[in-house]
Amino acid sequence: MSMQKKLSEQAQRLTSLLGIEAPFIGAPMMGATTPEMVAGISEAGGLGVMPCGLMNADEIVSAVKRIKTLTSKPFALNIRVSPRAPEDKVATKNLFDALEPLREELGVAHQMADIPAFDEQFEAILSADVPVVSFSFGGPREIYAEALEARQIPMMGAVNSTREAKVLKTAGCSVIIAQGIEAGGPRQYFENPLEGSQIGLMALLPPVVRVCGDTPVVAAGAMMSAQQVCAAMMLGACGAQLGSLLLRSEESAWPLSLKDQIPWCDDTATRLSDVGTGRATRLIPTGIIEALSQAGLAVSSYPGQLRVLAPIFAAAIAQNRPDLLEMALGQAAQTAPKGMTCAIVTKLFNDLKDCWSE
Question: Which domain holds residue 296?
């Protein structure tokens, strides 16, 4: 069998399952992904994914309605699994008190963000009639998986290890996203500690592909060009998750001041830090991240840290204060292009097909 045919058939395992044309899935980038970006990915033949991390039920329904006005093609909603460890309420309050002067400066109300309950979000997702649901930070419990299976809604989940891939496959996920250490944004580990969840994509893919068997595996981390996607597919991936590639797009919600920094970030510019949300995240250490890292305050595990900082992040976007934002970014992001999302994804797909035929 020719390499072109092999990789094309590999991609088809993913695309036929999801009802899409291009073997690409959007990364659920909270603070960056918009309904317009989701629609742009889907219109280019991939699967746009809308993050619902901070959305209440009404906001989820509204986002779905907006996406459906922009595209008739499949898309997904992403929901974050409730953390197993309880929030450190003392650490949360200490951080909240320490940031009172900053809230005063920004004119932000002295209250924490309300993180909607998982059940509230899940019920909204079910009522919204979406084609695909993806999970972060773990897989669905049996009751939730059964509700989606009854509606014939495919499930996707992300992993940082082979063990986690086995768990998600058993939980009923039809697509497994293998997130390498190169990827921007929050780490996806849920079975292993962070120290054991920092595996490079090229080392992670082969064993994950092996344990997943017929379940399609999608590569996440440094998927910035057709050559990189093709390399991941040579190791058994059926497609790629696109994140940092789209951060400079017209539809990205990032302020221009952040978008303009991306080309200047080399492969050593990012760090793993948990001070922005309470969960280890690959990011550029902006002013607020560096200040919190040096403050000596205990970090409140997710979502505690995020409950305190989300209102500040929102005000920072409105007031064009990039120094007060969490800038989640992958290690290869400096090559991210400008342009419309649909055009960027379409070009990547065309380049990938050229790679297959070479």
Answer: 86-115+271-328
